[in-house]
Amino acid sequence: MNKAYRFRIYPTPTQETMIRKTFGCVRFLYNQMLAERKAPSEWDRTDAERPKRQKFRTPAAFKTEFPWLREVDSLALCNAELNLKSAFRHFFRDKRTGYPKFKSRKNPVQSYTTNNQKGTIRLEAGGKHVRIPKLGEIRIKLHRHIPESHTIKSATISRSSSGKYHISILTYYETEEKPIFPHPDKVLGLDYSSKALYIDHRNTSADYPKYLRNMEIRLKNEQRVLSRRKTGGSNWRKQKLRIARLHEKVANQRKDFLHKVSKQLAETWEAIVVEDLNMKAMSQSLSLGKATMDNGNGLFRTFLGYKLADRGKRLVRIDKWFPSSKRCGACSKINKLLTLKERVWVCEGCGRIHLRDANAAGNIRAEGLRMLGLA
Ligand SMILES: [Zn+2]
Fold first, then answer.
1. Which one, 62, 114, 324, 336, has least CB within 10 Å?
2. 328 CA to middle of ligand 1, Å?
3. Domain segments of the chain as ranges
4. Over the stretch 254-277, which tens digit does the pLDDT of each residue have?
């Protein structure tokens, strides 16, 4: 199992310079490698298959050409190459992902990842500092304890748009929990809802608390203020920073809420079944658009996954093409005419009245039970 821990770090001015330099080098290498690939517009018909086979030059080759790349952590450069390769992999697997984009210097959020090699990344001084290659000891606020049984795999250093620095430490550990074989009554089916966070098969839903919704309204208002400021002016910049801080706060509150909900579910149920949705495709569909992204469903699923695994339980993912909404949970007849707007519908086969989301969650659960061999 992998688990990520994120902490605030406080680099000294010298360390900050080095971090910024590394951001720059990583971005440069990424963009340089990307630029050397043939862009889709240049692919001709005979070329159709070739882009996949185009080779990258290695970071080492770039270092000969641009010797200043040697000044920064070489593992960060390797990770830039891996990131680009995975961006291409995603693109070739699913064209909706879009062709890899150049990274901008102007993006306020910058990051790089480096790996732990036999203790090169470690906590020191009882957790007051973290040691990072090329940076030395950086002051860290360790608000959570990393268990002894966890091994550090890698660390990502990032700068947020409000100018704060964080480190995300990825750890590996073996779960000691014995796997629990779930009882059918203890299996929960969840459907993602565009309005609430989720709706389960008993028609219970979890929704975001009011304070989070209020924060989002506040954010929108602040954004309106920004639009009235002169772009690039000092008041504009002040407002921009204000919004960045607010954004961070909302994101943290949302995360906190998702942690609480997922923890509670993972403690109550022995297995949870969800649909393996393609979030990108879903957020692109206009009607569901924004609410889906705000819901942070991807994050919620990740939290659920490891919180269940920590307890020897399972998160069962079912195929995203499974017709969960349109199928009657009682007689399995499929209602082909069901539209997104219809929240309640009557089955033509058996005459039962269905609440759209609860019926879908019930179907998801049934499919999960089948996959678990409990049906
Ligand atoms: Zn029916």
1. 336
2. 5
3. 2-172, 184-371
4. 889 999 999 999 999 999 999 876
The residue type at 66: F
The helix/strand count (H/E) of the chain reads as 9, 14
Residues 6+ apart with CB under 8 A from 340: 287, 288
Of 38-42, 72-76, 105-109, 199-203, the least confident: 38-42
Q: Distance from the CA of 346 to the center of ligand 1, in angstroms?
A: 8
Sequence-separated (6 or more) residues with CB below 8 Å from residue 182: 269, 270, 271, 313, 314, 372, 374
CA of 366 to the centre of ligand 1 (A): 15
Distance 348 CA to ligand 1 centre (A): 6
pLDDT of residue 280: 47
What is the three-state SS of 112-171?
EEEECCCCCCEEEHHHCEEEECCCEEEEEECCCCCCCCCEEEEEEEEECCCCCEEEEEEE
How far is ligand 1, taken at its centre, from the CA of residue 72, in Å? 64
The helix or strand, by DSSP H or E, that contains position 270, with its residue range, turns out to be none
Burial grade of 65 (CB within 10 A; 0-12, 13-18, 19 or more): exposed
Beta strands in 261-371 (DSSP E): 271-275, 314-318, 344-346, 353-355
- Please tell me the predicted confidence (pLDDT) of residue 277: 66
Rounded CA separation 364/319 (Å): 10
Cα distance from N-terminal residue to C-terminal residue, the chain? 28
Cβ burial, residue 70 (10 Å; 0-12/13-18/19+):
exposed
CA of 12 to the centre of ligand 1 (A): 66
Dist CA 76 CA 132 (whole Å): 11
Residue 370 C-alpha from the chain's centroid: 28
Place of tokens 């971090």: 19
Distance 333 CA to ligand 1 centre (A): 6
